[in-house]
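Design a sequence for this backbone.
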């Protein structure tokens, strides 16, 4: 007996500080999936990332962008980003319909890579990103894991390393989703190994 149930959709929610390599990671992850003959959907969730919109299959800047919000609401970049993510949370049906539209075009697109903004307060002090993830998990039945990129060159000292660990732990607890921390730019990190108070295995 054949089941009419729709195939499951899996994906990654890619987060991390500005400059940690999130967009590069997302693009390379899609390339890896292509080599494995797995089709994916790359989604820009950063309303300030308007200059790379052609690189994404779905772009949240088509819904709103942070510059327009800053001008209209007379707020700064961080305030504009918070307002944008609040707007995204209230209009998730738009995003889900875009994703479902891509899947209707090709039913084998069952892996999604979400490229989220880098402002730490969105994860450590606000609830929008957590609520967006929960909506995808509980209302749309996407199976998602959080990939938190940490710039390894920002972990050169013990205090910097511990600070990164504490921020990562905060985000892991608050987002309430499967979570993995990834040190990015490790090729650069190894250049400074002789200056470290601990070895790279640590």
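Sequence:
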């Amino acid at each position: 007996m054949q089941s009419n149930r729709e195939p499951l959709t899996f994906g990654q929610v890619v987060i991390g500080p500005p400059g940690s390599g999130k967009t590069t990671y997302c693009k390379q992850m899609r390339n890896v999936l292509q080599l494995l003959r797995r089709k994916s959907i790359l989604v820009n969730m950063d309303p300030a990332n308007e200059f790379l919109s052609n690189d994404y299959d779905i772009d949240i800047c088509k819904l709103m962008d942070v510059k327009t919000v800053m001008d209209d609401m007379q707020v700064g970049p961080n305030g504009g980003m918070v307002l944008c993510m609040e707007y995204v949370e209230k209009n998730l049906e738009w995003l889900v319909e875009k994703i479902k539209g891509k899947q209707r075009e090709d039913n084998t697109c069952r892996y999604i890579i979400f490229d989220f903004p880098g402002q730490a307060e969105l994860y450590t002090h606000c609830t929008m990103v957590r609520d967006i993830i929960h909506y995808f998990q509980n209302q749309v039945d996407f199976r998602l894991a959080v990939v938190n990129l940490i710039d390894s060159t920002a972990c050169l000292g013990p205090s910097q390393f511990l600070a990164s660990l504490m921020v990562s732990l905060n985000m892991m607890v608050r987002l309430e989703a499967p979570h993995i921390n990834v040190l990015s730019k490790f090729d650069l990190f190894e250049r400074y190994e002789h200056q470290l108070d601990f070895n790279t295995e640590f």
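The mean pLDDT is 90.
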